[in-house]
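Study both lines:
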Amino acid sequence: MLAVLAGVVILHLTEIIILIISTSVNAWRTNKEASFDLWYKCSMLNAGYRCEGSSDADWLQAVQALMVLATLFCMLSFIFFLCQLFTLVKGGRFFFTAVFQVLSSLFVMSGAIIYTVMSPDEKDGSNSYGYAFVLAWLAFPLTLISGLIYIILRKKE
């Protein structure tokens, strides 16, 4: 049981780190001269790096909100897991933690889908998705799997 708990804790901490990185790093879309993320558009001009705020598009604000919510819900579910670990009756299930974790996975999935569908495509194909975008998509199955693990997991008697 101790190995399972250690695995769940390591998985959950990994998810939190991935969500924080994908939400805050400037690499959702990149090309040779610029990189774009949820918050800034940075470009290389005359050997200098210049950043400006991203657009105020409604879809981008929705993605920002969903990614922040996904990160917060993942952190809250970890706190709830630790609390339930010490207060839950023997044989009880971690349903409260699972609900927050599954909601976190749905938030990150929704944000990544909106960004995929709504992000402007360049006709010349010079833009590519960056590693933060990939990490956001990686966070979705990981949070969903850990949410399902919390549903199945029982406190040992």
Remarks:
- The helical segments are 2-24, 58-87, 95-118, 131-152.
- The first helix runs from residue 2 to 24.
- The beta strands are 29-30, 34-36, 40-45, 48-53, 128-129.
- The mean pLDDT is 87.
